[in-house]
Amino acid sequence: MTQPDAKQQPQPLPHREPLSPPAATVSHDHHAEVARARIELAAIRRHHGSSGRSGSLRAAVFGVNDGLVSNFSLVLGMAAADLGGHVVVLAGVAGLVAGAFSMAAGEYVSMRVQREILESALDMERREIEEEPEAERQEIAVILRAQGVPPEDAERISGRVMEDPAVALDLMARQELGLDPDELGSPLGAAGSSFGAFAAGALIPLMPFLLLAFGMAVVVSIVLSGLSLFAVGAVAARLSDRPALFGGVRMLLIGAAAAAVTYGIGKVLGVNMAG
């Protein structure tokens, strides 16, 4: 049997390393992947109710509750003193305006100071990433290891994270500082929301005295405020994943207790003034 000629055997092709994509393409793909991941993360947070809108809704509900309880108690106390419908309206309007401005001012100052503190912390972290990248990379590696990432993977991932200062800052802000850079909040927005929520709640017990005769207004104000207290309590309970009936009854009892105290005080003062 003749042996095949060695020259006729197919020769293997020379090994070639795959061409690396241009650096600009890699950077573009990296940023695109980060953007997609953030969109997916935002969707996950919305699913679990951890978005900023949930916090705003919670603040609005409790703002309405504050205005409702405080002005209901004030109006009922003045009505018990039996000084006339115009006095009740004057006191109710004064309580609405004073309470709303107080809530707005307190919310603005609180949010302004909180935002300034958080912005200062972010600026410091940003400078540390720029001036001490190796120390920050080691901190990121520690954070990853604390989340269960193996040390060798933590070292590799931390280096990749530090390639994008924005990603590094976002990670350090959330994990080291414990804050969300996307939800620092607006002081003016918070003040306006508090003002509006408190005023809306405070207007409920006052409206009957603006539209009806004194005797009927007292009854309608009590009924309307009681229903509103129950509704606000039910909504607040649902925000905390508790039974709506439990939250509604609890809020109704709290509001009724506060109103009963002011009603008693107004009754005693009214009798003393009349005497």
Secondary-structure blueprint:
Layout: H1 23-47, H2 52-80, H3 85-131, H4 133-146, H5 151-162, H6 165-175, H7 187-211, H8 214-239, H9 244-274
Helix pairs in contact: 2-3, 2-7, 2-8, 2-9, 3-4, 3-6, 3-7, 4-5, 7-8, 8-9
What does this molecule look like?
The chain is mostly helical and about 280 residues long. It is elongated, with a radius of gyration of 32 Å. The chain has one domain (about 65-275). Helices cover about 80% and strands about 0% of the residues. Helix 2 packs antiparallel against helix 3. It contains nine helices and no strands.
What is the 3D shape? Answer: elongated
- Low-confidence parts: none
- What share of residues are in beta strands? under 5%
Largest sheet: none
Distance between the termini: 137 Å
Structural class: mainly alpha
Provide the succession of SSEs: HHHHHHHHH
Helicity level: over 70%
Radius of gyration from CA coordinates: 32 Å
Q: What is the number of independent domains?
A: 1
Give me the count of strands: 0
Number of H- or I-type helical stretches = 9
Please identify the oligomeric state: single chain
Mean pLDDT: 80
